[in-house]
Amino acid sequence: MASHDVSGPSANRSTEAPARGNCFTCNAFVHTEFEALSERDVALINESKVTRNYRSGEPIFREGDSCDGVYCIGAGLVCTRKKDKAGKSIPFRLRYPGDTMGFRSFLAGTDHGMSSEALEPTRACFIGGDTIRDLLSRNLDLCLSFLRRLASDLDSAEERLLQRKTLNARARLAQLLLVLFGSHGTVTESGELLLKLPFTRQDMAGAIGINVKSMSRIIRNFQDESVARFSGRTVQVPHFEKLVAELGPHAGLTHRA
Questions:
Q1: Is the pTM of this model over 0.85?
Q2: Superfamily, domain 29-156
Q3: Stretch 185-205: mean pLDDT, rounded?
């Protein structure tokens, strides 16, 4: 679910939405923290959850909303966002089928610290606080799963801070494209990387901490130097090694999403 935390670790999960939200038949359920629960406890979730389909661009929850449960993504694609000091919404992380949202605020007993928005038609299930508290009180493995997730998110945040200090703007954009390729890219017959961007260039600029003008300048430079070609939300990378070379000695920072 991280390099810039805008492409979760779910590269191979389908985003095609099934018609129903049943935990026992949901392909995404095995990727959740709940997958090790007993059949009885899965049935408890299945009976108590509230399933809803969201349109592209529709918020699932907003920063500052009260949090009394967690959301589990069954299908689609979600972007979590956080406002900066100027009130600008900055994309923080992409969430995929099998990812849970809101657990950190729920465990901390606080309001939602971020907002979430469907980037494409999405199905998400809300599991209420009473059910979550009951399950946590009886399942050590579930507690450990959430703790591992919290630790992973903390590692991701520290890695993101390191990148801001060690990578220049060109390298941060190159690194973002490489990470996004894991979930949103393909390789053509000619060996080119073809990437379908999940969000706008303005969001990309916010994700790597630069303004849109600087983003446009770097894109022009990439195109002039045949590092990458941009057309709308499609990016073609003719030579993978040239894009990786933008990271210099920090190439290893592309290993996580």
A1: no
A2: Jelly Rolls (2.60.120.10)
A3: 92
Q: Domain spanning 167-254: which CATH class is it, in words?
A: mainly alpha
Count Cα atoms within 13 angstroms, Cβ side, for 41.
Answer: 17
Please, which pLDDT band fits residue 14 given cuts at 50, 70 and 90?
very low
Average pLDDT along the chain: 87
Closest CA to 95 of 110, 74, 112, 113: 74
CA-to-CA separations, 201 to 58, 135, 193, in angstroms, rounded = 19, 41, 19
Are the C-beta atoms of 10 and 31 separated by less than 8 Å? yes
Query: What is the per-residue pLDDT for 157?
Result: 76
Non-local (6+) Cβ contacts of 152 within 8 A are: 1
Give dist(CA 71, CA 49) in Å, integer: 9
